[in-house]
Amino acid sequence: MTPSTTRLLVKTTSKLSSLSIRPSPRCGRAFSQTCLRQQDDEKPPAPPKPPASKPSILAHLSTSLRSNGPPPRRSGSGNSGTYGMQDVKRVLATGTISRAMNRPHADTILDNSQEPTEDWGPKHEPFHFHIYSHKHNTHITVTKPNRNAILSMSAGNIGFRKTKRGTYDAAYQLCAYVIDKLNQGGWHRKITALEVVLRGFGPGREAATKVLLGNEGRLLRPFIKSVSDSTRLKFGGTRSPKPRRLG
Is Ribosomal protein given among the entry's keywords (predicted)? Predict the structure, then answer.
């Protein structure tokens, strides 16, 4: 190797070593080239938004039930029972979830839709509770303001036969049964005014009065506006049958 070649190698090696030792100006500065001073009118960065709350399980189930919809129905009698049970289960699940989330469900919608659409007559005319009592039987009839009957029963309709129909106990049970039927039909929510009409002087007159004033009539008693007597009184008229005499 000649001296000129050796000298050239030494110079090249020294240049390479100086380049490897000298730090790079680009990576030597850790910060950006922009000015670090903020302007006075620049607003501070907004705080990070809180994470969105996860929807509840009830809301997820309610959404899934509404999105799925009822299952498709097929023609034929093979799977009619299966689809019917699926519909019933879906309705029950929807009603349970709606009650848990305090939302209106099918029951309340049906209750609200059953508004009286029939013409019951004049607004000022009350409902009537007729009690016809004689020594052989007791008849109770409840009518609307237009005189159409809601319920009409006698002691024989609840199981009393022959002479037992004219007793005080039969009349008491009959009146309690009629009031219970009215409450089951929701008439205590529809009646706004009630007039009690008494006829005859049999044991059922006092029995019906006791029922209306007792615990059985607590739902209808606030609506009673008047009590009237429609017992037939004869002025002259035809000859009455002779009194029955025993012995």
Answer: yes
